[in-house]
Amino acid sequence: MEPFSAWMQAQGPDADIVLSSRIRLARNLKDTRFPNHMTADGAQTMLARVEQAILGVQGGWALHFQKLADLSPVNRQVLMEKHLMSPAMMEDPIAFRAVAIDERESISIMVNEEDHLRLQVLLSGLQLSEAWSVADRLDDTLEATLDYAFDARLGYLTACPTNIGTAMRASVMVHLPALVLTRQASQVFTTLAQIGMVVRGLYGEGSDAVGNIFQISNQVSLGLSEEEFIHNLATVTQQIVGRERHAREYLQHNAELMLADRVERAWGLMSHARIMTSEEALRLLSEVKLGQDLKLLPATKSTFAQLTLVTRPGFLQSQSGRELSASERDQMRATLLRKRLQDEAQSA
Amino acid sequence: MENTHEARGDRAQLCQRCETRPASVHMTTVVNGEKFDRYLCEECARQEGAYHFMLAPQFTIQHVLGGLIGLNPSGQRAAPIPDKQCPTCGYSYQQFAETGRLGCDRCYQAFGNELEPLVKRLHGSVEHHGKVPRRSGQDILHQRTLEDLRAKMREAIAQEAFEDAARFRDQIRTLEEQHVESQGSQDHGTV
Questions:
Q1: What ipTM did this prediction achieve?
Q2: Residues A100-109, mean pLDDT to the nearest whole number
Q3: Which of A78, B75, B130, B171 would give a disulfide with A166, using CB separation of 3.0 to 4.6 Å?
Q4: What tens digit of pLDDT does each residue of A217-245 get?
Q5: Domain endpoint, select from A224, A245, A266
Q6: Using the beta-carbon criterion (under 8 Å), do B131 and A34 form an inter-chain contact?
Q7: Binding site for ATP: which residues of A?
Q8: pLDDT score of A323 more than 70
């Protein structure tokens, strides 16, 4: 397995601030109990049906279908850390669940999460419309053989009424260190809430924004078309990107020494520390990234998204090929980051 | 104690076990007289057996939803939760009120009266304007196109643009005829 997903190369538009764009569609099968109300037999029948549909998909999607029960806990965790699976997929009933992923790790289909199917497309930078067009086509391809639960008035029917209608969540993952430093972030997020957008941390629902990474998505899914929801989020994201760039310029003009000191310290710690917790790593990475964006620090070949993944516990354990204790992880994390920063900065 | 708070600042601390969710539980264990402090999330604390007592249920969307159900806009419980079941899957409305999740797609019909005000409160709308399944939704797509054309025709008549109105009328007729034909060819044998 490639250690990194294609989107982590950060080549999309505005990818220095918008780490990724994601479209997620919830789909359920007609006349079939939702996952929370399924019997074990029902779940197995349903899994088999979906597996057949996914394997039968034509047109070069190259999806790799895996039952979660066939994956080790560490490998499941890595999929979660790469955002190919939601944290909810990590919980029971594992036996009912499966995931289909393409080679570039841009597309994933979660089977029997809260809904029967959750199709997801993840692209680098601000590319919501592009992600929607891929998700839309994949959805049509699957619907050619699966009968979806759909109501002319309520749209796509989902286990939780908060998701009906388009059953779509469009989201962007943004890195906003300057808005946080200039204490504008909370005001921006309050405004977002007023216009029906939700802000979450790195791993979605129930996670906090460590490393100044925020996920912004549409709250409502019914009443507008997919294109309208996407247009709204894309417009708002562009404004936030503008605010972040403005805050960076402000800092450079008004607090250059403080800024340089801050990012150089982060670089110093990261290229010399021997023990590092995941929380410290994310915090330092965010500052190093800001320093690199502002050309105050040398560039590295590894992108921010790649380095972020390198700090994650599941990824560390999959790289070392065995389970690691928390203190072993802290050592390995420090070693990997130190090496990547030192080696790559020299060769860059 | 104060030092701990100082060190954490206002930044969220990650759980030291899963390193993914925010830590919300401070767990102290004493092993052979030595004290260990750890900061965990609720899930990991539960898995490590920290709770011999029951925690307050989590504050998730499902639970908030459960609270919204059956409330009138002034926040009073309008009526007791109806003792209803979905005839298709047997799921009860009580279960929905507890979990915020339905049992199957037919539950939306079975609990339609109860769900409608809730959907309106959640989304501010009860009308889907987005995608329709390409294969199975052809009838719906057809109806949408017809409604669209009828609205345009009414608009044209209101503005006394009768030539336009006639053009829309012809389009509607053609579409209706095509639909009847395709229906006929699909259903032949059963009719």
A1: 0.87
A2: 96
A3: B130
A4: 998 999 999 999 999 999 999 999 999 99
A5: A245
A6: no
A7: 20-24, 83, 118, 169-173, 200-205
A8: yes
Chain B CB within 8 Å of residue A139 CB? yes
Q: Do A319 and A199 lie in a common domain?
A: no
Do A210 and A116 share a structural domain?
yes
Confidence (pTM)? 0.83
The whole-number pLDDT of residue A200 equals 84
User: Which residue has tokens 């699957």?
Assistant: A142
Give the model confidence (pLDDT) of B37-79 as tens digits. 788 887 787 777 665 444 444 455 555 666 666 555 555 555 5
A327 falls within a domain:
yes
Using the predicted structure, report yes or no on whether residue A98 has a pLDDT greater than 90. yes
Q: Which of A32, A37, A218, A220 to mutate to test the interface with B (most CBs of B within 10 A)?
A: A37
Same domain, A237 and A261: no
Whether residue A313 lies inside any domain: the answer is: yes
Q: What are the boundaries of each domain within chain B?
A: 11-52, 61-123, 137-189
Burial class (CB in 10 A: 0-12, 13-18, 19+), A55: exposed
**CATH number of the domain where residue A184 is located:** 3.30.590.10
- Tell me what percent of the residues of chain B surpass a pLDDT of 90: 28
DSSP states along chain B? -HHHHHHHTTSPPBPTTTSSSBP-EEEEEEETTEEEEEEE-HHHHHHTT--SSPPPPP--HHHHHHHHTTB-TTSSB-SPPP--B-TTT--BHHHHHHHS--SBTTHHHHTHHHHHHHHHHHHS-----S---TTTTHHHHHHHHHHHHHHHHHHHHHTT-HHHHHHHHHHHHHHHHHHHHHHHHHHTTT-
Would you tell me how many other CB atoms lie within 10 Å of the CB of residue B57?
Answer: 10
Instruction: With CB atoms and an 8 Å threshold, state whether B136 touches A148.
Output: yes
Between A171-180, B29-38, B63-72, B151-160, the lowest mean confidence (pLDDT) is in B63-72
Using 50, 70 and 90 to split pLDDT, how confident is the model at A348?
Answer: low
Query: Which residue in A76, A157, A284, A327 has the most chain B C-beta atoms within 10 A of its own C-beta, making it the best mutation to test that interface?
Result: A157
* DSSP string across A102-129: -TTS-EEEEESSSSSEEEEEEEESS-HH
For residue A29, what are its two tokens?
A: 């099968």
